[in-house]
Specification:
GO terms for molecular function: kinase activity. Pfam families: ROK (PF00480). This is Putative NBD/HSP70 family sugar kinase. Keywords: Kinase, Transferase. This protein has 402 residues and is an alpha/beta fold. The protein has 3 domains: 77 residues, Winged helix-like DNA-binding domain superfamily/Winged helix DNA-binding domain (Arc Repressor Mutant, subunit A, Orthogonal Bundle), CATH 1.10.10.10; 139 residues, ATPase, nucleotide binding domain (Nucleotidyltransferase, domain 5); 162 residues, ATPase, nucleotide binding domain (Nucleotidyltransferase, domain 5). The protein is 45% helix and 17% strand. The protein contains 16 helices and 14 strands. The strands form 4 sheets. A 5-stranded mixed β-sheet has the order 5-4-3-6-9, sandwiched between helices. A 5-stranded mixed β-sheet has the order 12-11-10-13-14. The protein is globular and about 65 Å long. 51% of the residues are buried.
């Protein structure tokens, strides 16, 4: 009896690690799962069977050959019909709600509004209502909810300290507002809130361009402004109070544009979509987001010498900022999102040369600089934090969302 109980407890303790391995694609077969967990084949089989019974993964009943050697093994995938979480993002041009399954799969998504209300409760309530409608239409079980906001989020209070691009009051209690609206809408499971670029970096590390990196630096523009994040061995480095990696306020042009932070020439105002449009002498229009307008200009009119010159000016400023971060953080990979991703595509050699020329470690180590690969990566990242209790303990996490 004691031996049976010990085996059962060992298997239950492996449920979370096993689910995370399947969730991130690191255990595509039961044989790989067995090796990664360091357990017997029987234990791995029991763990996979229990996760399948919970509706979280599927185990292919027919073993498949893996590689040129070794015996066939059962393929493991997340269950496409399994639970979802509600993921939401607020940015300067509106919001987006989505339902996201395990594996970072976006099941359904819906945008909303073009002008963000200065009262955070109004827009957060609207995005939760949109998400609740998606849930009703899907009929899917919900395991939790996550929200990405364009601001540093202080821990443990969950307040937005600098929501300057959405005109919310500094210190807005976004986490409490989101949790209250989620509960009021009858959405099951816990609710979490975080900075949009932090969450994008987490998503890219688990499912996108950052997979396999141990020290991943992410720098990205939003619809306005610039953010950064660092993922160390799979965990976000958020500092002592959630405020680490505010890279948007690195000075890259001392005589440059005034910044909202009170300084001048920060990445936030020298390399974001509005800065590019201004550098190219273009007046932003009201019809689409600044990010869309900047990307479209870069894509369609790069042959124009003025547009090309504007892009190169931003690349040089971005490269200077990245070089400083490389010297301080020594990452093994850099990923770029938003307009920075498009600038990398337009001038890859120039950007890498600036970083190498201005950074000691960039010159000697050649830090890879890659584009982000996930669409809606902040949304997927918001889903990741909502999924985390289930990944930590599938039985308890699903019970919390029941």
């Amino acid at each position: 009896m004691s031996s049976t109980r010990t085996k059962l407890e060992r298997g239950r303790g492996a449920l979370g690690p096993a689910l995370e391995l399947v969730h991130t694609g690191r255990a595509p077969t039961r044989a790989v799962l067995t090796a990664e967990l360091g357990v017997t084949r029987a234990t791995a089989g029991a763990v996979a069977a229990e996760l399948e019974a919970l509706g979280l993964i599927t185990v292919d009943s027919r073993p498949v050959a893996v590689g040129s050697q070794g015996r066939p093994s059962h393929r493991l995938t997340v269950d496409d019909a399994g639970p979802v979480v509600l993921a939401a993002q607020v940015h300067s041009d509106g919001f987006r709600a989505a339902l996201v399954g395990l594996g970072g799969r976006i099941v359904a998504t819906a945008p909303g509004c073009e002008v963000v209300d200065p009262d955070p409760a109004q827009v957060i309530g609207a995005v939760v209502d949109t998400g609740a409608a998606l849930l009703r239409q899907s009929g899917r079980r919900c395991a939790g909810a996550g929200l990405a906001v364009p601001s540093a989020v202080a821990e443990p209070e969950g307040t937005a300290l600098n929501p300057i691009h959405v005109a919310w009051p500094a210190g807005s209690p976004v986490r409490d507002i989101f949790a209250e609206r989620v509960a009021a809408a009858g959405i099951e499971g816990p609710a979490f809130t975080g900075n949009d670029v932090n969450l994008a970096a987490l998503a890219e590390h688990r499912h996108g361009a950052g997979r396999g990196a141990h020290h991943l630096l992410c720098v990205a523009t939003g619809h306005r402004g610039v953010g950064g994040a660092l993922v160390l061995d799979g965990r976000l480095h958020s500092g002592s109070s959630g405020l680490a990696l505010e890279v948007g306020h690195l000075t890259v042009n001392p005589e440059g544009r005034p910044c909202f932070c009170g300084s001048r020439g920060c990445l936030d105002v020298e390399t974001d979509p509005l800065a590019f449009l201004a550098e190219a002498g273009r007046t932003p229009g009201p019809e689409t987001s600044l990010l869309h307008q900047a990307k479209e200009l870069l894509r369609e009119e790069y042959g124009d010498p003025v547009v090309r010159g504007a892009a190169r000016a931003l690349v040089d400023r971005l490269g200077l900022g990245l070089a400083g971060l490389v010297n301080i953080l020594n990452p093994d990979r850099i990923i770029l999102g938003g307009l920075h991703q498009a600038l990398l595509a337009a001038e890859p050699d120039r950007l890498r040369a600036v970083v190498a020329d201005r950074s000691l470690w960039g010159r000697s180590g050649g830090v890879p600089i890659l584009p982000c690969t996930l669409e809606y990566n902040s949304l997927v990242g918001a889903a990741e934090v909502a999924w985390q209790p289930v990944l930590d303990d599938p039985l308890r996490g699903l019970a919390a969302g029941a």
